[in-house]
Design brief:
Blueprint: H1 2-12, H2 16-23, H3 31-44, E1 55-61, H4 68-82, E2 85-91, H5 99-106, E3 111-116, H6 132-136, E4 141-144, E5 154-158, H7 160-173, E6 179-183, H8 189-205, E7 214-216, H9 221-233, E8 238-241, H10 244-256, E9 266-271, E10 284-287, H11 290-306, E11 315-319, E12 322-324
Helix pairs in contact: 1-2, 1-3, 4-11, 7-8, 9-10
Length: 338
């Protein structure tokens, strides 16, 4: 469709964005131009029917094994459907279809927007040029959570720095000073924010944080378990994790090493995902405001679509998380109990 849009635009003498608006019955296109677009499409053999009012929105997400993403997908799908918008779900996995491949595929559709729950944009090591074709076609984009903000788009984020501080304040209030940090990819912007916020907090509190009490790993229960074992071996009495999967891995590590949670080790997760329903002990975690973030992403996409003057600019909104205290955190164990 990308090449077809370009061919149609060149033949008529308008931009590909104007052709896209005409196909999707969007405002800003005269009746004469709209008619010319469809006549040209017919001449070129392009079989795309005029929109019946239903807009197509690509919803791009990583592996749904992390339940926080299905939670977002469900809420966003519902919100889009209420606006007569049809989500095109694209789930990329390691070793499977990549985000870049999906973007090339959806670019063949008459898209009205794209929402990203994760991707190249939230990683400092990855190229962000894969989003340029959407920018060139004037397709509005909305991104979830922290990134470099280098695309003209709408960004809805949880305040990761604040989340980290509230979790650490909770652990320090319980007497913990040897607090392990169980983090994800070093180049992942949300993880980078959490790490820098933790270091700043430790400095403010006069807490010496040994490098041995920070572990970087991939997001997952198994990887979390292996990394948590190192933190426990290095003397951590509490572990703050970058997501709930890592936290569950930390609970498994404690059990395998004969440690009781929270008597011997306190664990804090991040997300408050549906994954925690059957976790024992009940996990203390930081809750992301999934509903508010989902509403913001859909609303932000609409703002970009309706206000063409915002082209080339981005907007960032942050939401306050909530610390949910449950059974996995408790007072620091006395030295004789360690």
């Amino acid at each position: 469709m990308t090449s077809s849009l370009t061919s149609i635009a060149e033949k008529i003498g308008v931009s590909p964005a104007t052709v896209s608006r005409a196909i999707n019955n969007k405002p800003g296109v005269s009746a004469k131009t709209r008619q010319t677009v469809f006549e040209t499409m017919k001449q070129l053999g392009v079989e795309v029917a005029p929109s019946n009012g239903c807009r197509l929105v690509a919803l791009i997400t990583p592996d749904l094994s992390n339940p926080i993403f299905p939670d977002f997908v469900t809420k966003i799908n519902t919100l889009l459907a209420q606006e007569q918008e049809l989500p095109v779900l694209c789930t990329y996995t390691l070793g499977g279809l990549t985000e870049e491949i999906y973007l090339k595929m959806v670019m063949q559709l008459p898209l009205d927007g794209a929402i990203f729950l994760a991707g190249h944009y939230d990683n400092a090591r990855m190229s962000h040029k894969i989003y340029q074709p959407l920018v060139d076609r004037g397709i509005p984009m909305a991104f979830l959570n922290a990134s470099s903000h280098d695309q003209p788009a709408f960004y809805a984020e949880t305040d990761d720095a604040q989340a980290t501080r509230m979790a650490l304040k909770h652990l320090v209030a319980l007497g913990h000073r040897k607090i392990g940090l169980l983090l994800g990819d070093r180049a992942h912007y949300p993880t980078m924010t959490k790490y820098q916020s933790a270091l700043a907090f430790f400095k403010e509190e006069g807490i010496t944080h040994s490098p041995a009490l920070t572990q970087w790993t991939t997001y997952g229960i198994e990887s979390g378990q292996l990394a948590a074992q190192e933190l426990i071996t290095n003397g951590a009495t509490a572990i703050l994790c970058a997501n709930d999967q890592l936290a569950i891995g930390a609970l498994h590590a404690a059990e395998n090493m004969g440690k009781s949670v929270p008597a011997d080790l306190s664990v804090v997760g991040y997300d408050d995902s549906p994954l925690l329903t059957d976790v024992t002990p009940a996990l203390t975690t930081v809750r992301q405001p999934v509903t508010a973030l989902s509403q913001a992403l859909v609303h932000g996409l609409r703002l970009l679509r309706d206000d063409t003057r915002r082209g080339g600019r981005n907007s960032v909104v942050q939401y306050t998380p909530e610390l949910i205290v449950r059974d996995s955190t408790g007072p620091v164990p006395k030295p004789k109990d360690l």
